[in-house]
């Protein structure tokens, strides 16, 4: 069977599934009203899913010195938000079923803004409680968005995932690069540099507010999906999500500290992180589009993982005069790895109901697994007194992500059953 025939058959299967879903819910999937407004809202929401994470790394040494944090507490501070991404992800479908996905996104955006204020204004206790709230908020919203994309932009799912990921990377880059200058501008007050990022969260909430009053298709959580935990493909998608995310959060949490340890200033290290994340804008948009042009996504996964590992090892070991080249290579790789992870959730699902549940599994379990990476880096650094041995962590995580990705990248669907609640 040639590629075009296979794609036609897959499209027919999706159309059959969509028609069946329409019959089950009595045509409750109207075309979304004002799709441009939904698209704008999705972009603004996505912009807020990384600043709370990437803004801390450039200021970690200043925050630790100001509050007297031990090395163990500083390591926990980089791990806690990532752990919360996974631990709170299972709440997303429960909340969406009770209140509706759009209302949940609005409420959680406001909760995210609250967490950012707490961690920047109330000492050590507020720092950790606010980080917990911010991580939980990002975890819940992150689970809901792929299902919304699958539901309301089904025919453009790959491209929309790329746009959403590009906005996410832009938010991370802005926070990584601007947080230290903001702190310096306001009299070297790290609290203002961290607290500033509540502003875009409130702005996103204002632009998302109209979605709570629009008609959308029936939310994916209205259907019970069985069999995900017993499906090998679902676990491969989950492991790929978790292992590549672990590398990403090591970069967010520790790359500036690694570069400072190699001789850069805090501002320079933050700019390198920002530049690397900014490069992700290109690959996060291009990788899903290119990956969906082939027969499957395995080659794309191998390429982006090789770029990521090359960039990581370059930043860790190569001479500093070539640092920006390695940072760009790292950005190209990580933009592709993350956007492909989100794309796999959509492509391996037959419909929006399955996509939402696979998203919950991949992000809930995956981000819990991902939190071990930043923790391991902190422990290895404390144990060895340097950064050289961290390369072994990069190698193990990268190899594991590649193996899982080769399984997840195959052109097939997770095998589950779906029934109305």
TrEMBL record:
Q: From what superkingdom does this record's organism come?
A: Bacteria
Q: Which SUPFAM superfamilies match?
A: MFS general substrate transporter
Keywords, sorted A to Z: Membrane, Transmembrane, Transmembrane helix
Q: Which InterPro entries match?
A: CynX-like, MFS, MFS_Cyanate_Porter, MFS_trans_sf
Q: Where are the transmembrane segments?
A: 36-54, 74-92, 104-122, 128-149, 161-184, 190-209, 271-292, 299-320, 326-347, 354-377, 389-408
Q: What is this protein called?
A: CynX/NimT family MFS transporter
What does the organism's lineage look like at the top?
Answer: Bacteria, Pseudomonadati, Pseudomonadota, Gammaproteobacteria, Pseudomonadales
